[in-house]
Specification:
Low-confidence stretches: 310-344
Distance between the termini: 75 Å
Bound molecules: zinc ion
Oligomer: single chain
Strand content: 15-25%
Number of domains: 3
Number of strands: 14
Strand order of the largest sheet: 12-11-10-13-14
Order of helices and strands: HEEEEEEEEEHHHEEEHHEHEHHHHHH
Largest sheet: 5 strands, mixed
Radius of gyration: 30 Å
Length: 344
C-alpha cells in the first residue's frame, strides 16, 4: 500500500523504480534505482548511453507521507556528453543540484503564498535561506516566462527593503495577465532604462499604457523609450497630492487671515482631510460653516472631493507633472479644472 501510494506520488518517474522503502528513525526513505541503461544529460537534455560513473547515493527531501518526513534516495549517474563534457544525469523528480523534489518545492511555494517565510520554516523544518532561494528562483523564472509574452499595458512601481539605508527594487508587471515580468535593482531612471533595453525598441514602441506613481525617473524613461505609451498615475498618489494641496491652502489662509477668520481655520486640518461621508452630523455642520467663511478653502475642498470621486478607474489620458512635487497634476479632466482654479 505504502509503496503504491509513493509510486503514484513520485510523479511517474520514468526510467526509475522503487527498490525499497525503509524507515530510518523518524523518516521514511524511498530508495530508487534506474531501469534503463541510458541517462539524460542535465546540461543539454539529450539522452546519453555512455555512462561515465555512478555517484554515491544522495537524498532529496520529498513531501511528507502521513506527516512522516520522507526522503528519496538514489545514486545518480554521470554521463559523457559531447556538448557538455561529463555531467550528472537529469533525474525526473528534482532539479539539478536541488536538495528537494519538485513536489516538495511546490509544497514550499504553496505554503509561502499563504503564510510568512518564518511560518514555512517552522512548519517544514527548513532554513530561512532555503525557502528564500526557492521563492527567488520561482519569481525569476516566472518573470522570464512572462517577459517573452506581448506587453501592451504595464505597471511600474518600486518596493523598498532592508533596514537602515533604504534599498529599492523596481517592479514591472503586465496588467493584462496580472503577472510580474521584470525586477530591477534600484529605482532610478537607469533602472527602468535597463528594462526597456532588454525589451528592445520594437517591443517598447508597442506598449500602449504605463501606470506608475509620479516618479520623475520613471516618467523620463517611459517618454524616452515608449513615446506612444500613455502615462496613468495611480489614484493613491493623486489623492496624496490633492490632500497636500488642501492642507497647504489651509495653512496659507491661516497666515493670511486675521481675527475670527484665522480662528476658523485653526486646528481644522483633520476636519478638512476626513472624507465627508465619514464625518458625524455635528462635524459636517462645522465643516460647512468653515467653507462658507472661506472661498479659497471651499474651492480647494470641492476640487479635491470631485477629483477623488471621479478619479480614473480605467486608463485615460493624464498629464505628466511639470515639477517633481506633482501638486499641479491630476486626472485629465481634473487638470482642466485645476488650470482654471487658483488653488495650485
Ligand atoms: Zn549534454
Amino acid at each position: 500500500m505504502l509503496v503504491s501510494i509513493l509510486t503514484e506520488q513520485l510523479f511517474s518517474a520514468k526510467g526509475w523504480r522503487i527498490a525499497a522503502t525503509t524507515r530510518q528513525g523518524e523518516r521514511v526513505v524511498v530508495n530508487l534505482e534506474p531501469t534503463r541503461a541510458n541517462a539524460i544529460c542535465s546540461g543539454c537534455g539529450e539522452v546519453k548511453t555512455r555512462i561515465h560513473d555512478v555517484k554515491a547515493a544522495r537524498a532529496w527531501r520529498h513531501t511528507d507521507c502521513w506527516n512522516v518526513p520522507t526522503l528519496v534516495r538514489a545514486s545518480a549517474r554521470r554521463v559523457r556528453c559531447r556538448h557538455c563534457g561529463v555531467r550528472i544525469e537529469q533525474v525526473p523528480w528534482a532539479r539539478t543540484k536541488s536538495r528537494f523534489t519538485h513536489a516538495f518545492e511546490a509544497e514550499v511555494l504553496r505554503r509561502a503564498r499563504d503564510c510568512s517565510i518564518s511560518g514555512v520554516c517552522r512548519q517544514l523544518g527548513l532554513h530561512w535561506t532555503s525557502v528564500m532561494r526557492l521563492i527567488e528562483r520561482w519569481v525569476e523564472e516566472s518573470a522570464a516566462r512572462q517577459f517573452r509574452k506581448p506587453l501592451r499595458v504595464i505597471g511600474v512601481d518600486e518596493v523598498s527593503y532592508g533596514r537602515g539605508k533604504r534599498k529599492y527594487l523596481t517592479i514591472v508587471w503586465d496588467h493584462t495577465r496580472a503577472r510580474v515580468v521584470w525586477i530591477g535593482q534600484g529605482r532610478e531612471r537607469d533602472t527602468l532604462d535597463a528594462f526597456f533595453a532588454k525589451l528592445g525598441p520594437r517591443r517598447s514602441r508597442r506598449i500602449r499604457v504605463v501606470t506608475m506613481d509620479m516618479w520623475q525617473g520613471y516618467i523620463g524613461s517611459v517618454k524616452a523609450h515608449a513615446p506612444l505609451a500613455e502615462l496613468v498615475f495611480d489614484r493613491f498618489h493623486i489623492e496624496r497630492y490633492l490632500t497636500q494641496a488642501v492642507e497647504e491652502v489651509r495653512r496659507q489662509e491661516f497666515f493670511r487671515r486675521r481675527g475670527v477668520y484665522r480662528d476658523a481655520v485653526r486646528g481644522k486640518k483633520w476636519l478638512l482631510l476626513t472624507k465627508f461621508r465619514r464625518l458625524r452630523r455635528r462635524k459636517r455642520r462645522e465643516l460647512m460653516a468653515l467653507l462658507a467663511m472661506n472661498r479659497r478653502l471651499f474651492k480647494a475642498y470641492l476640487f479635491r472631493s470631485n477629483s477623488s470621486t471621479h478619479g480614473p478607474t480605467r486608463p485615460s489620458r493624464v498629464c505628466a507633472p511639470s515639477s517633481s512635487d506633482g501638486a499641479d497634476c491630476s486626472t485629465g479632466h481634473g487638470s482642466h479644472r485645476s488650470s482654471r482654479s487658483t488653488i495650485c
